[in-house]
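Quick one from the shared queue. A colleague (R.T.) flagged Transforming growth factor beta receptor associated protein 1 as missing a structural entry in our internal table.

Convert sequence to structure tokens.
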Amino acid sequence: MFATVAGISQRAPVHWSENVTGAAVCFPYVIALDDEFITVHSMLDQQLKQTLPFKEGHILQDFEGRVIVATSKAVYILVPLPLEKQIQDLLASHRVEEALVLAKGARRNIPKEKFQVMYRRVLQQAGFIQFAQLQFLEAKELFRSGQLDVRELISLYPFLLPTSSSFTRSHPPLHEYADLNQLTQGDQEKMAKCKRFLMSYLNEVRSTEVANGYKEDIDTALLKLYAEADHDSLLDLLVTENSCLLTDSAAWLEKHKKYFALGLLYHYNNQDAAAVQLWVNIVNGDIHDSTRSDLYEYVIDFLTYSSDQELVWKYADWALQKSEEVGVQVFTKRHLEEEQNSFNPDDILTCLKKYPDALVKYLEHLVMDRKLQREEYHTHLAVLYLDKVLQQRPSADSMGTEVTEAQAKLRHLLQKSDVYRVRFLMEKVQGASLPMERAILHGKLEEHEKALRILVHELRDIPAAEDYCLWRSEGRDPAYRQQLFHTLLTLYLSPSSSAPELAVAAVDLLNHHAAEFDAAQVLPLLPGSWSVQLLCPFLTGAMRDSVHTRRTAQVALGLAKSENLIYKYDKMRLKGSSFRLSDKNLCQTCQNPFCEPVFVRYPNGGLVHTHCAASRHMDPSSPRPGART
């Protein structure tokens, strides 16, 4: 048993034979002598480590650090192997746990710095032994604890280290393997497992202190593993901060036909022109890479966010030829600040002349999104809309009621914009069988009767006529609004308009918009055959408005009289008071005395000369003694 001076046992006992005649301690071993053998047990794990045949032994004792054993005829010295030799022998026989226990127990006999170096090396060697046995979890912990230079592990894998790497393996070597092929004896399944382990291990350590000083080697090796295994993490590596060496990585990606990833590598290394050209080749089918099925859209987004004008212009035609609708996004989806500072809209419009659909999209962007108030943009867009509408309606006699998308856009632009050339568009619309558009343009020219006549008599569109009045009177004074509705009512009730539906429309107009009419002007226009019951809502509303107007006027008059009375009272109160003016009073503005009884008095009691008060009102910077009464 092992016990301290306090009599406490802190280790498990060692089991000896019954006939032990002598014992000695040679740390970390306990040596015992019996009738036939010398046994050596470890104090660290209490296991039997060695047995030596030895008969007729009488004495076994430690003399000044040396173990002496004697018989009746001879004296022997037991000399232990050096601890490091023992540890290496254990590792050579793959007894990893025993080697680690022995190495840890040797701490008391070896200087601290030397022990740390030795122990780290033992951990690293043990890690490679576990790695060779595919015990990857154990190997990873040993590598971490032993602070392994990860390049030692990478160097086992052929071609993973960059050609520019200055790494050389540790000497003496940490393992007995030349490369992964020797370690796995060519077993492809084992080789694949080893590569998966290295991918996982490198991914874990690349952002830790372990990678300091050789991140390029780690990231380049990781890229090669990902590319070879067709791993999804390849793209994640390339779109985040990395230290992949361009030359080695580019050659490897090209070898494994990872062209999209190669483009990302070029982009990360500020070679956007090479990246885009590579992606364009993929889209064109010159090279094959199925990484992204939406690569064309990806290139468009890339160009959209690129600040390299030369690059954008170089591939603008290619993008538009593939798809005008998508390609124009290179210009329309840019950040507004960058677009304003870099690309001239006129240059873009010149480029888009060959692409009519893209031209429309870009003009919509300028007019609708950026809200640029330039006449040429609005007029150009309206003309393009009009041309498209006319193409869809080739016959001037066709009066189809279905409104196309282009026609709806044209009408919206004509209504909302105030900067296009109205008369120029009117000339184009004339004779084109587009009455609604003509009506809108007449409205822009303040030709309301013509516009309403088109809506009422040509189109027979009663709701559109009422909407027109609301649209053109928006934001205008009540008199302007009232005039529009009276014009519409006049058209409904004109002698030439004998259609019954117009009479019905007139009644509905009066009953639904009673507030927009002056009853005194309307009543003389109404046919005598109309009953009071027919116009009951209008007449009721007119009476209510009339009464409301009269009462509002009475209230306003009463308030005005009250205000006037208050002012009269204030005036009388001021006139009823008096004050003394003498040559001792000084003007608050010029500080001079009054020489005559002519002055200005302020509500705060301040007195000033008349000419000082006049000059103060002419010069705002002069002192302000108070508001003038």
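Residues 83 and 390 are 99 Å apart (CA to CA).
Strands lie at 22-26, 29-33, 37-42, 48-53, 57-63, 66-71, 75-78, 600-601, 607-608.
Added to the table.
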